[in-house]
Amino acid sequence: MKKAAYRVVVNWEWTSKCNARCAMCPRHMIDNPTISTGDSFEQTLARLDPQDVFRCVIAGYGEPTTHPQFDRYIERLRDHPVTFDMATNGSRLSEERLRALDGVLRTLMISFSSIDPQVYQSVHTNLDQRAVMDNILAAARLLKRTRVVINLSPTRECLDTLDDTVAWLRGNGVTDLHMSPTYYDRAGAQKTSGQPDHVRLRNEIRRHGLGSQETAFIPGAVDIYRQWRANRFKCVPRNTNMLISASGHYTYCFNDIRESQKLGHVADISLREALERREALAEQGAICKQCNLRDRYRPRELVRVAMSYARARVAAAA
User: Fold this and answer.
1) CA distances from 173 to 24, 169, 176 (A)
2) Domains of the chain: total
3) CB of 223 closer than 8 Å to CB of 54
4) Over the stretch 5-23, which tens digit does the pLDDT of each residue have?
């Protein structure tokens, strides 16, 4: 009997190139930064089936707005049956672009570290803080059909200025604020001094009433159960997501930054076939052994995340 299908989040990388050098991003591990071609874009778009995908996040390790075909790509998403979101550093969100993507994306997630200029520059290196702040306010003002979410960076120095940062955002009507309760080490690649105390991190999230970025990656209890049953390796972060890189390859895990374990190319196999290939694979050496996300998703943590997700769904429906 064929196993019941489950849905995943697709993390779609339009480019692995970026105009920033953020402290929490292990870009030094990307051997050949690239941009997606028109062919691989169309092939990937054709592979996104709502039966397999409950959410597609345009992100990866690069900044999608720097792709030379960004505006055309956004327009190609219009009327596609899959739900699209995008993560961005916010540096290239002109008013024209914001109007064009309104309603095409369900959620626009903007990464922001701190209202303090020195802290911002230490985390979001190479970016113009004032321009990003102006773009955040423009997004909040102009977007009517696309939700604006601010993903706050969970580094220690960001927590030190979190009160002022949250006050500025909420004082300007930007209220959908999220922060991850885990500082992702990304397969041992991230050894920065900015890693916070996790007890403090979670206390700050509760104190400010911040949403959790992780709940958006949970399709539902049935899908989680089916993922767990189908996969030989019981790893929720791996099995919940599928990164399609700018080169057009399905990858073993988001933490496989160097694409050392490719599952196939979008030109040759479907997403379902890539998932089936991954289901048979076990732990992959250093990619898994050094990952700090595995402990984040032990049974007790899964229950906590599920409860948080359920509360968020109930609140959204109210």
Assistant:
1) 27, 7, 9
2) 1
3) yes
4) 899 999 999 999 999 988 7
Name, in order, each residue with C-beta under 8 angstroms of 276's C-beta and a sequence gap of 6 or more.
none
Can you give the pTM of this predicted structure? 0.89
Q: Is residue 143 part of a domain?
A: yes
Split at pLDDT 50, 70, 90, the class of 1 is very low
Is the alpha carbon torsion for 73, 78, 83, 86 positive or negative?
A: positive
Say if 74 falls within a structural domain: yes
- In whole angstroms, give the CA distance from residue 206 to residue 298: 21
Name the residue type at position 59. A
Positive or negative torsion for Cα 129, 131, 133, 136: negative
Domain coverage including residue 169: 8-317
pLDDT computed for residue 248 by the predictor:
97
Q: Give a three-class secondary structure readout of 168-228.
A: HHHHCCCCCEEECCCCCCCCCCCCCCCCCCHHHHHHHHHHHCCECHHHHHCCCHHHHHHHH
- Confirm if 134 and 91 have CB atoms less than 8 A apart: no
Give the separation between CA 7 and CA 61, rounded to whole angstroms: 22
Spatial separation of the C-alpha atoms in residues 278 and 272, rounded to whole Å: 10
Residue 177 lies in a domain: yes
Q: 242: which DSSP letter? A: E
Q: Is residue 302 part of a domain?
A: yes
- pLDDT tens digits for range 20-48: 988 777 777 787 889 999 999 999 999 99
| Residue ranges in the chain assigned as alpha helix (H) | 38-47, 70-77, 95-101, 117-123, 129-142, 156-160, 162-171, 198-208, 221-230, 236-240, 271-279, 285-289, 299-317
What CATH number is attached to the domain comprising 280?
3.20.20.70
